[in-house]
Structures are given as C-alpha cells and as structure tokens.
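note to self — DONT lose this again. spent like an hour looking for the file last time. sequence + predicted structure for the chain T wanted, 136 res
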Amino acid sequence: MSPSTSPVSARNVGIVIVSHSPHVARGAEDMVRQMVGESVPLAACGGNPDGGLGTDVAAISAALDTAWSDRGVAVLVDLGGAEMNAEMAVEMLDESRRDRIRICNAAVVEGAVMAATEASMGSALTDVCAAAEDAI
C-alpha cells in the first residue's frame, strides 16, 4: 500500500490507533471519526492475525500507510506489546518516513480523540502528541 496523497493528508497529521483488542481499536476509530469527520488521516488495527488478542507488525505497517501524512503520524498504543510492535513497524519504514512518526505516551481512546482534534486544526506533530499525552 502506498502512502496517501489526498489533500487531507497533506494538511493534517495522521493518527494510528493500535490496540490488543480489535474491538477497542475499531471503537476508538469510530469515536474519532464521529468527532472530527474525515479531516484527519486515520487508521486503527487491533488483534493478532487470527482475530484474538494481540498486535501484528504487518497490520500496524498497513495502518501507518493508510494514515500517512507528510506532516507526520501520531501512533497511540494500549500496552507494551503494542508499543514494541509499533516500534518494529516504524523501523521497517523508509528512513525518510521514520522521522515523521511519533509513538505517544497516551491513553488510547482519550488520547486519540484529543490528538485528532488537535490534528484537525492543522497543528504540528509535536502539538498533536502533546494533546494526546495531556489527555491522561
């Protein structure tokens, strides 16, 4: 999957939600969409490849591509394993893209909503991550 080139992705930081639960990931994504609409590139992934609890590096990589923005991507994770797999997915990216991705130390649902709200205003990646982290 190639990075998005839509006008939205050029304007706003993207958001990726990574949860061990596919239900939590989809629920957080749905909440963000209801609050900010389509103004922010957004993707969520959760669960292992068999549909159980866990995370998957390939799914996270696909989510990063889906939510890609030249302004950067803020990644929200729920547990340590999700963070580790997100870090692995980032390391697999082209070096020119790695520097524009930040894994936020934030609560998944609250952080995603606040990050997306901040991103929808055209804020920089550092401000989007700060908004997510301040939501705790």
